[in-house]
């Protein structure tokens, strides 16, 4: 499985619940912030983006970024634990 960060800036808040449902539908996820989620999936980065794209307007922003170790930061224990159990070291 690969872990990605899905981060978005929606200008029409009406669509937020729909994009969140789609993110969570993909399986294993952790909320990093109001508009950033870590997702662990067998999908490619393009497949994840394709699932989220219908919930975006032309004035919205959305990036899907591969997430791996090493990383640094701190947040809630449940998020830290999730990251520890889902992230792999990037191969050189």
Structural class: alpha+beta
The number of helical elements comes to 3
Top-tier CATH class: Alpha Beta
Total strand segments:
4
User: Taking Cα atoms only, what radius of gyration do you get, to the nearest Å?
Assistant: 13 Å
Distance between the termini: 18 Å
Order of helices and strands: EHEEHEH
The CATH topology comes to: Alpha-Beta Plaits
Shape, principal axes of CA atoms: globular
CATH architecture: 2-Layer Sandwich
How many domains, in number, for the residues? 1
Quaternary organisation of the protein chains = single chain
Provide the β-strand percentage band: 25-35%
List low-confidence stretches. Answer: none
Q: Residue share in helices?
A: 25-40%
Report what the structure shows.
Strand 2 and strand 3 (36-41) form a beta hairpin. The protein starts with a strand and ends in a 6-residue tail after the last helix. The protein has a 4-stranded antiparallel β-sheet with strand order 2-3-1-4, with helices on both faces. The protein is built from 3 helices and 4 strands; from the N terminus they run βαββαβα. The protein has a single domain, classed as Alpha-Beta Plaits (2-Layer Sandwich). With 92 residues, it is an alpha+beta fold. The model has no long low-confidence stretch (mean pLDDT 87). The relative contact order is 0.27.
């Amino acid at each position: 499985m690969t872990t990605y960060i899905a981060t978005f800036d929606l200008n029409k808040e009406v669509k937020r619940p729909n994009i969140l449902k789609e993110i969570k539908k993909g399986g294993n996820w952790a909320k990093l912030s109001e508009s950033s989620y870590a997702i662990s999936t067998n999908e490619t980065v393009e497949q994840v983006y394709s699932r989220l794209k219908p919930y975006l307007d032309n004035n919205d922003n959305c990036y899907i970024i591969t997430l791996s170790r090493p990383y640094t930061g701190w947040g809630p224990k449940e998020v830290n634990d999730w990251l520890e159990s889902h992230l792999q070291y990037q191969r050189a």
